[in-house]
Amino acid sequence: MYDRPIPEQIVYVARRMFERRLTDMAGGNISARAGDAIYITPRYAGSKQHWQLSTEDILCGALTGEELLRQPRFSREGKAHLAIYREFPDVGAVIHAHPFHVLPFCVAGRAIEPVIEATQKFGVTPVVPFAPAHSADLAQHVVDGLRGREASIRKQAAAVLLPKHGIIVAGLDLWAAIDALERIDWNAWCILSQGMFPPAPIPYNVE
Fold it and tell me: What CA–CA distances, in Å, run from 4 to 11, 38, 111?
């Protein structure tokens, strides 16, 4: 899939995300940069199409100007995608998702510490200030939350948590972004699961 046209890559990634509970029917969006243009999933990809997209569903438009914003099926959270691409030239793909194990951290407003080796390179995934979904304020908070983490993006990806909402991952390309998304979700599960461990047994010494 790595050498397939970008719309095919997005369709593939969308289905894998839904299968692996990395997003839900409530929403999310996936985009990838191609020169001065981006490809992005359409509005209602989750709620009406259950992420069973075709390449004809994928929108394409210029990074500059208002062309994409005028498209009727443009995903409303796409404003954040455009803001990220315009601010960070190294970003090749953006994923906004509602991962099963990440959402409790979004609700609690708690950053995700890297507790497994596979997420150490991402550092702490911070929580940005609250702003309503689809708003320009939320897009700006996401950009601010990624600023200063360009080295992580150049290495693979960086992510931020949206309060009561989900996660946004900015990656070198689509494969780097989806890989980072799943690593962070599994890392979140490792943190949550610690509460299920029984107390450590008291050592039994025979005299």
Answer: 11, 16, 35
- 6-194: CATH, from 3.30.559.10, 3.40.50.1170, 3.40.1550.10, 3.40.225.10: 3.40.225.10
Give the count of beta carbons closer than 10 Å to the beta carbon of residue 118.
15
Contact 49, 81 (CB under 8 A): no
CB of 58 closer than 8 Å to CB of 78: no
- Residue by residue, what is the 3-state secondary structure of 74-124? ECCCHHHHHHHHHHCCCCCEEEEECCCCCHHHHHHCCCECCCCHHHHHHCC
Q: With beta carbons less than 8 A apart as the criterion, state whether 159 and 169 touch.
A: yes
Q: Measuring CA to CA, how many Å separate 107 from each of 104, 164, 199?
A: 5, 4, 27
Residues 86-124 have pLDDT tens digits of 999 999 999 999 999 999 999 999 999 999 999 999 999
Q: CA triplet 148, 151, 155: central angle to 5 degrees?
A: 145
